[in-house]
Amino acid sequence: MTSVQQPSTKDDILQFLLKSSQATAQKLAASLGVSPQAIRRHLKDLQAEGLVEHQVVQSGMGRPNYIYQLSAKGRDRFPSQYDQFAVSLLDTIAEDLGAEQVGALLRHQWQRKAQHYYATLGNGPLPERVQQLVALRQAEGYMSELHTGDDDDTYIITEYNCAISQVAESYPAVCGHELAMFAVALPDCQVERTHWLVRGENLCGYKIRKK
Q1: What are the residue boundaries of the structural domains of the chain, listed by start?
Q2: Fewer CB atoms inside 10 A, N or C side of the chain?
Q3: Which CATH number is associated with domain 9-75?
Q4: Is the separation of the CB atoms in 18 and 70 below 8 Å?
Q5: Which helix (H) or strand (E) holds 190?
């Protein structure tokens, strides 16, 4: 019988920092229910592995605070379906056929994906459709979560990693495609971006409001 590997405290620390952007050892300890001493040992190991980095913030005359956050290597630990091969392939297409052909290819890709989303979600109640959309995104490698908005017809989808981050860095137009896909998948809704990893924020956020 194959045993299921349980998440470790180090994994919990990495996920917390992914969501919160940064935190002190005390905050991590309180949030994860682990002693500060144990948290500091784990943080030391994670820094040695290059997954976590810290900055020192002086507040008043007391001891300085150590603020921890994920390094670029730490972010790369989270699911990503597309790697440098996809970027290399697009670069090759651009060299051989031109940038316009790459743009047309990416547009065709998001249009197909948007139609897949729409066909999968159907025309049921909005709460069920947005929950299913989040499930689709999670299956694609996004750390996606659903939150309620200010009223019953508003929802917020947050994604703490980008499953196409390397593609997005080289071809940022795909980020606009993500927004357009949600709009096609939910044609009776207004979709707007609230946060953006590309802008240096710690997540991508989308507000979905029924028209």
Answers
A1: 9-75, 84-210
A2: N
A3: 1.10.10.10
A4: yes
A5: strand 189-195
Full pLDDT tens readout for the chain, 211 residues: 333 344 589 989 998 998 888 899 999 999 999 999 999 999 999 999 989 999 888 776 777 889 999 887 888 777 554 466 677 778 888 888 888 888 888 888 889 999 999 999 999 999 999 999 999 998 888 889 999 888 888 999 999 887 777 777 777 777 778 889 999 999 999 999 998 887 778 888 999 999 8
Which of 44, 45, 42, 21 has its CA nearest to residue 32? 42
CA distance 121 to 2: 34
Q: Could you confirm whether domain 84-210 is CATH 3.30.1380? A: yes
Token look-up 């917390």 returns: 16
9-75 and 84-210 agree in CATH topology: no
N-terminal to C-terminal alpha carbon distance within the chain: 51
